[in-house]
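Lab notebook, bench 4. Still working through the backlog of constructs that have no structural model yet. Next entry is a single chain of 255 residues. Request: give me the structure tokens for it.
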Amino acid sequence: MTNKNTEYNFPAQLLKTLRFARQVAVLTGAGISAESGLATFRDPMTGLWAKFRPEELATPEAFQRNPKLVWEWYQWRREQVEKAAPNPAHFALVEIESKVPNFTLITQNVDSFHQQAGSKNVIELHGNIRRTKCFEENIVVESWPETDEVPPHCPQCGSFLRPDVVWFGEKLPLDSLYAALNAAKSADVFFSIGTSGQVEPAASLPRLALENGATVVTINLEVTTASSHKIYNFNGRAGEILPALVQKTWGNSGS
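Model written out:
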């Protein structure tokens, strides 16, 4: 929940820049979903999965070695996603999208909380855990005959089905990557929210935006609060900072 009593001193120049921005791009990472109670990818796993490291399961090689194990782990992760829901940060981004002429939301998350909240122009760099695709043909499969087999098979070619997410060792979808790069290059304001900034190529997007003249706003629990011309850093919860920023900029809560 947003703390209504929290006061943020947003620089007047930032508010003015955002209010008159024509193109806004946003990059989100695991931190924004963590505020919905969803464990980040690298948090220690619990229960039956405590003895595994995510990096040992999220690879094509792991799936080929033990497809049942990997499928069941992703089924467990899907269940965690289904139990969670978008938070005030997600809804504040929807509000920003409604206020600016051109808005692009680039996410490293696979939970589709942004779409659930109402965001329309979303680029999913790492796929979507709610979707399934064919392991061999790399095409999304909407439905398949009910079966006790784990994992199920593709109804078209008979190959195993797998989650439609980007695993370690796999390339990002080129159309999504190019769209993200173009959004960063053309942004007047670029937000980096809840991401460590260590995973390439997404980590280069704020820098690319800055090099092309954008104002860059970082919201993270681990960022230094030092700011300078065209760079604004806010250390805290996006679910508190973003609604407050929307209210200060446009005069409503965004939630």
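Notes after review: The radius of gyration is 19 Å. Residues 176 and 202 are 11 Å apart (CA to CA). Flag for follow-up if needed.
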